[in-house]
Write a structure and sequence with these properties.
By secondary structure, the protein is α/β, with parallel strands linked by helices. It is built from nine helices and nine strands. It has a single domain, classed as Aldolase class I (TIM Barrel, Alpha-Beta Barrel). It is 47% helix and 14% strand. Helix 2 packs across helix 3 and helix 2 runs parallel beside helix 9. The chain is globular and about 45 Å long.
């Protein structure tokens, strides 16, 4: 793994929480990023399904510098990966195993997290060069128990479940072997975009961070 990508992976694994932030207006992205940072969350993913995702990646990267690791999500092709990286994305997330996305990330020394679900897809993603494998939709196949099942044959593969992760089960996902947890609606849903406050986001993110901290403490005991 490239040194730059390895540093980003270490940052993700240190935080363990990857907030997936969809938004409608730029000011919303900025407010959410500030709110996450107030909860000591220094990772954020902006999916390209949001119209202004590239602008948000550039804006938040410039504003926070190295204090916040900004990534792009729902990246479906190599060209989109390149555009995201040039905008400032330091990690790229795809919902599928896309070799052109992985190849572009390797070319630009950028951490890459392709999506998989089955054991075969998971291994294919890792062997293709994934730094982290997104397991999605995890809740549809058993949640934390499925992560535990995957880690049995693949203890060396770094997994990031997405879908169904809550503050109540975050510790179970960590105990099952998850390297990081992707969370979208659990922190900010599309329905809440019209009326959320920064305090709302900070409080929700802090609940996840508290659960992750307790899981680590339990593991260390």
């Amino acid at each position: 793994m490239d040194g730059q990508a390895l540093k980003v992976l270490h940052r993700i694994k240190a935080c363990r929480l990857i907030p997936i932030v969809r938004f409608l207006r730029m000011e919303q992205a900025e407010k959410i990023a500030r709110a996450l940072f107030a909860a000591k969350v220094d990772i954020v993913e902006f999916p390209l399904t949001s119209e202004h995702a590239l602008a948000a990646i550039e804006k938040i990267s410039d504003e926070f510098g190295d204090k916040m690791v900004v990534g792009a999500g729902t990246v479906l092709d190599g060209a989109s990966a390149r555009s995201s990286i040039l905008a400032g994305a330091r990690f790229i997330v795809s919902p599928a195993v896309k070799t052109d996305v992985i190849g572009m990330c390797k070319r630009y020394s950028t951490a890459v997290c392709p999506g998989a679900l089955t054991p075969t897809e998971t291994l294919l993603a890792w062997e293709a060069g994934a730094d982290l494998v997104k397991i999605f939709p995890c809740q549809s196949v058993g949640g934390a128990s499925y992560i535990r099942s995957l880690k049995t044959p693949y203890p060396h593969i770094e997994l990031a479940p997405v879908g169904g992760v809550t503050p109540e089960n975050a510790a179970e996902f960590i105990a099952a072997g998850s390297a990081a947890l992707g969370v979208g609606d659990g922190i900010i849903s599309s329905q809440a975009l019209a009326s959320f406050t920064e305090e709302d986001i900070t409080r929700k993110a802090a609940r996840f961070m508290d659960a992750i901290k307790k899981a680590r403490t339990t593991a260390d005991d």
